[in-house]
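queue> pop job 88
queue> type: inverse folding (structure -> sequence)
queue> payload:
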């Protein structure tokens, strides 16, 4: 098992981030969906349990073509679905990813604490045990300066060049922007990665850690660069957007499914 703690500083307040995160999640799901693959939102509803209440979501990710080839070689394509359960009791959130075929042999669990005014300096924001602290690797993410995959790069999603008219923020061109911006907050994302298949464990866990870092980096670059799209929205606005997005995702995922399946088979041969 790998334990990583990704620390992502953002040029907004914790309250603003809550809206921006939900907006960017909805748009990112749309971006990933089409041609028989993508995100299926099964549940999105309030939950409550002793001492905690928030929003529960259950999603299925149909993303077979994005799974590493060395995993696809040993797992049938019909089993290449990831199930995501998330309990969003903001500012604390917990997300669990599993796979029905691998059962207890695979899981990714991440806990997130969103801290207002923080610049990534808290050493144990999520109060984990000494044993886990000894295994944990801290991974700071700079959304403006960390490299991303060239195929993912878009000039209009580069924080070094983006300016928000509504919030009067950016661009993040100063190399020391994380120490200077105001408002500021940090996402502390503690991620447990487990893949218990002999011969593939280390390779897959390392691959997943890199993929997660890339995903977090891209997501938060988009969140900042889309500020003028979500800034000023209310939670009611977000919930209405999520309802509309669920219908859109169902349509986009099924459109072109037969053609997509055919092209995927050719690529796999």
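queue> result:
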């Amino acid at each position: 098992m790998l334990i990583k703690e990704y620390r992502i500083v953002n040029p907004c307040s914790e309250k603003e981030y809550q809206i921006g995160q939900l907006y960017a999640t909805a748009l990112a799901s749309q971006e990933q969906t089409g041609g028989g693959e993508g995100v299926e939102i099964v549940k999105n509803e309030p939950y409550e349990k002793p001492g905690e209440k928030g929003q529960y979501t259950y999603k299925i990710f149909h993303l077979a073509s994005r799974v590493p080839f060395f995993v696809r070689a040993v797992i049938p394509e019909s089993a290449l679905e990831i199930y995501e359960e998330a309990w969003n009791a903001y500012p604390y959130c917990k997300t669990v990813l599993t796979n029905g075929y691998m059962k207890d042999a695979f899981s990714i669990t991440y806990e997130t604490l969103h801290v207002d005014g923080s610049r990534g300096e808290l050493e144990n924001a999520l109060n984990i045990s000494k044993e886990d602290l000894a295994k944990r690797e801290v991974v700071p993410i700079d959304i403006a300066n960390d490299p991303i995959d060239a195929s993912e790069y878009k000039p209009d999603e580069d924080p070094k060049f983006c300016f928000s008219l509504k919030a009067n923020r950016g661009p993040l061109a100063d190399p020391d922007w994380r120490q200077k911006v105001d408002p500021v907050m940090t996402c502390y994302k503690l991620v447990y990665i487990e893949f218990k298949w002999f011969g593939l464990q280390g390779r897959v866990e390392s691959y997943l850690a890199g993929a997660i870092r890339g995903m977090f980096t891209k997501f938060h670059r988009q969140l900042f660069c889309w500020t003028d799209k979500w800034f000023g929205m209310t939670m009611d606005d977000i919930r209405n957007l999520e309802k509309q997005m669920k219908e859109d995702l169902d349509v986009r995922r099924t459109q072109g499914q037969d053609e997509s399946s055919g092209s995927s088979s050719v690529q796999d041969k």
